[in-house]
Amino acid sequence: MVICTLLVAIGQFFLKRGVEIFNLSLISIITNYWLIIGLFMYFIASILLIKALKLGDLSVVFPFVSLSYVWVAIGSMLILSEVMTFINWGGILSILLGVFLLGKGGLNA
Predict the structure, then answer these.
(1) Containing domain of residue 75, as a range?
(2) Residue 60's pLDDT is what?
């Protein structure tokens, strides 16, 4: 699942770059390799998520998807030089704690 969430996060950076040079013409959309790569990463992540859902409980597997928010926040700070506030870090810690607790609860069931 970690690979799935990393693919979603990386795909998000490709989509961000793609929309920066985006216009609404069909030719522009289908020739925008940033968008294509981002969507492809989402597609691969979806396949991995489907596989994980087949093997595990929805209540345990799906919360792991929220890790993509963590990767995007950290990547935005490192790659895009975005500023993370104390509240942002609190949100990241909340997500990590939630994923940990849900995963731990799923293992004990």
Answers:
(1) 2-108
(2) 82
